[in-house]
Amino acid sequence: MQPPMWVGGVNGFAAYCMDWLMAVVSAWALWLVGLRCRGPWIGFWAAAIWLICYQRYAALGFLGQPEVAAVALSALIMYLALNEGPFSRGEAFGAGLILALLAVFKPPFILFGLLLMARGRRRSPGDAARHGLLAKPALALVPIVGLSMLLWGYFASLGATKDLIESALVLPLRLGQMAHGSFAAQLDAFATGVSLLLQYLFMPFLFALAGVALFKKLPVRSERILLSYAALAVILIPVQGRYFTYHWICALAPMSLFAALGADGVATWLRGSSLRRTALAIPLVLALLFLSSAQPRWDLWKRYRGAPTIEAFWATVPSTYPGEDRMLGADVVPRLAKNIKRQTADRDTVFAFNTDPGLNIYSSRRSPTRFFYVWPLQAPGLTPPQWQTEFAHDVMAGRPKFIMVCRASYTPHGPRDDLDILQAWPELGPWFNLNYVRGRTIGSLELYRLR
User: Whole-angstrom Cα distance, residue 44 to residue 261?
Assistant: First the structure.
């Protein structure tokens, strides 16, 4: 989230604008795909339906996720795959750049690169070697190597090459090797994601089913590539293994393309019957798609209009921290951060134990450690043993003026008391008990200050 911070200062609105800018870029990429599949109207519907679907997930707070960028990049991959003939030099270079960017956002996203195999495959496997991306490997490798060197140089200038290696290579590889629960548990988590998709986007899903019925109107090659795109977007969810709701954002792109076929079919039928006018058919179909998911957005808008300040609006939006009888408002952490900023110096550190790095952002105070969340430090088979020791030593050396702890932290298996985890941490727990005293308590959040 660095770019929006540079552009608009430390504020949520700048991050929100950056996120929606990426969503609009994704809509443009899906328009290109629809245009290539079956003309400008399919492109229009795909872009419009994607924005309708994404605003529903954004209204739930799933903002700033790498999946939004993955939609734009994967749609461009699909566009390249749909083109006929051998790769041009520019296309080979662009494909390499897109693959490099997908890997930067999340290594599993490079699975979308498999779509490029459809470009060169015509009648025999030899065609892929002559016309596919492998026919111009140097041009594809140039941006991959170039971006890698750029990242390496930036982190090296900060003396942080170890952090780059561990975050970009070690952690993703170990995460992929982790056991993610039993097959039954994973199936249940996957089914929950599907049910939420139906709950949030029932009408777009119905239009997507109608699009499946009209699927055969596409060229055969486009059919296969679109099906492959949908399959890869869905496969990415169990590959990542954590089944977070925002992981489904990637699946909204192929769903939007299927729904575009359905929407175009309905609009065509309306134009050909009693309405007979495109000017009426298009708004009607858009209304059908949007109204089923507009209520949360309308509720947020009414709260915003009725709030005298932005802080008052935040107070009406629930956070992920439980209070006494309901979830605490989203204003809690920014308010705590402002108080902390007044009580600390620029050189002081502040630590949000396994909770919210927003405490550091809004207080303009650094964290004593690079580990914001402790789940990677506790997952069996995931964490190098030295990370736990490094974490404890970093916090003790930094002596943060304040430590925030959640006594009912959200997990997929129910609330968890993070204070128990902190107090049981080798070396760190006894040091914490000796040096900190509990100060302010707001709902499940407790703020401890240095003695």
Answer: 11
Q: What is the CA radius of gyration of the chain?
A: 25
Cβ within 8 Å of residue 127, ≥6 positions away: 120, 121
Q: Using an 8 Å Cβ cutoff, are 217 and 269 in contact?
A: no
Ordered alpha helix ranges (H), 39-124: 40-59, 66-82, 89-105, 117-120
Q: Kindly report the backbone phi and psi dihedral angles of residue 325, in degrees, each rounded to the nearest multiple of 5, phi listed first.
A: -125, -5
Characterize 47-61 residue by residue with b for buried, 16 or more Cβ atoms within 10 angstroms of its Cβ, and e for exposed: bbbbbbbbbbbbbee
Does the global pTM surpass 0.85?
no
Q: Could you read off the pLDDT of 363-403 as tens digits, one per residue?
A: 999 999 988 888 778 766 667 778 889 999 999 999 999 99
For residue 58, give the nearest of 106, 3, 17 by alpha carbon. 17
Give start and end residues of each alpha helix (H) in 135-248: 137-157, 161-165, 171-177, 183-200, 202-213, 220-240
400-415, pLDDT tens digit by residue? 999 999 988 776 556 7
- C-alpha closest to that of 407 among 377, 450, 449, 446: 446
- Kindly list the distances between the CA atom of residue 98 and the CA atoms of 16, 68, 102, 113, in Å, as whole numbers in the listed order: 24, 14, 6, 9
Classify 225 as helix, strand or coil: helix
Distance CA 256, CA 50 (A): 5
In angstroms, the CA 133 to CA 248 distance is 29
